[in-house]
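Researcher: If convenient, please comment on what follows.
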Amino acid sequence: MWRFIVRFFALIGFLAVLAVVGGGFMVYRVVMAEPEAPDRFVLALDLRTAPRDGPSQDGLRFLGESGPTLHRTVAAIRQAADDPRVVGLSARFSDGAFNLTAAQELRDALAEFRESGKFTLAYAETLGFGSGDTAYLLSSGFEEVWLHPVGTLGLSGITISVPFAREALDDLGVQPEFVRRGPYKTYPETFTEYAFTPEHAQMTRNLADDLFRQLVEGIAESRGIPDDLLEQLIDSGPFTADEAMVAGLVDRLGDARAFEQALDERAGDETPTVSPGEYLAFAAPDDEEADARVALIYAQGMMMLGESGPGSPFGGPRMGSDTVRAAIRAAMEDDSIDAIVIRVDSGGGSAVAAATIGEAIEESVVLGKPVVVSMGRAAASGGYYLSTHATAIVAQPGTLTGSIGVFAGKFVARGFWDDLGVRWQSVREGRNAGMWSSLRPFGRSGLERVETFVDTIYDQFLNRVAEGRDLPLEAVRELAEGRVWTGAQALDLGLVDLLGGQDAAVRVALEAAGFDTGAEAVLVPFPEPPGLVEQLTSLASGDVPWSDSALDQLARIAPVLEYLDPALQDPANTVMQMPPLWVDP
């Protein structure tokens, strides 16, 4: 009887999986079927949530994947500018979180679209109450901005928040022990300090000032408002809809139906709207007509040895050195690939992982295949280390980069166990045996070894930056010390070569590969994205999230947890990690 029950439920499970896969494939075929191209239409963006900056997972669209990626959205806008069938561009905004670099990348594409002379209209029910600055920065680039009469405009400035957990650790009986190089390498201060040190406060203030300047200059230019007047307006924010209208921050107030009527008037009655995904399905250039093939490799999340993975919903993806290195070498050895673009979005992680990936990049450049790094939200510490020997580095003005410094350490939890009444005893052979144990401090001998490790890695970091960026070593020492810079500041310091997004990086890569200005390239993902069946298998095993939209409510706390995660890894690793800076525009 028991064997019959087991087999019966096994059969039901098999049939259920078969039905999901078969049904999913049928829906996939329907959803992914090439749509018919209208003769005249409006490209319509849904920016109520920010496009995901990462590889496409089109095969899972039927499970709720939230729209195209940042790159595909930008590609659609740029192509639509020259497409005579596209008469205009519309976008819907909301109070969803929008990181600054994504807004800047989309604004660049929007500016090119507006040069075509086609109309651009933006509509929002609300643009946040206290944190709508970056969404408004992007929407301000549209020719006309609409806001619902009951909505709000959360233009109120930039905040950078940093957690300090020393008091909590004291209460738990946990003692942090860290060794670092550079007074601005402030990651350990989250655990060792109760508040900002002077250097930490200076660096954070400097970042906030520059990000605020970028916000003000971008909006002021778009809205035709003097910088000083806009700063006064920001000090008065956030705004009701009527206040935003009076201040000249929006152009019209109205509900969605009124906006749609205005859109029809500009585009012509019965002119359909087409999403970027739909548009690229029928309008993407033929790969065979492209002048070049450029490999696109994503290097995202905390860096670790081994294979890349989705990580946890709280900590974000994991960048595995084996995975990224293999992708670089595969693209390097592929004769059909003319150049490589690596999209880096990482605050760092394992120093060895960063070095391993950086060596693969250097190998490709030395062998004659250009590698251009495109920096996203952050490319700092280990994320900067791996970039140093690229052919060129392209960053957005709001990218967080630099953080040239290292640290290593551990948490001593002996007091925690003592408070619980748990007594540990150990037997050791070897003076430094158990030096990484959480049951005792390093001791003089162990601390000497940690100091040596940190000194060695820091010197290697400095020399690698000096060599890769062709800078004097002493100059690198002055701009290093763990300090985080914005992309705009990094350009002035010689740490990056150009300000721009992924498209700019592709253009630089093509020029480095010997192609003429204006050459068209097809981007080839490395490694190849998994097929539908592989993705369904991953879903069934819990290896990937069901959908981006299911994690939206975790977006606010994910950045903090992502930056705290390195402290929970193997303490014996020497770490290149930027400090936890939670930018809240």
User: Anything to note?
Assistant: Residues 36-156+237-282 form a domain with the 2-enoyl-CoA Hydratase; Chain A, domain 1 fold (CATH 3.90.226.10). The two ends are 63 Å apart (CA to CA).
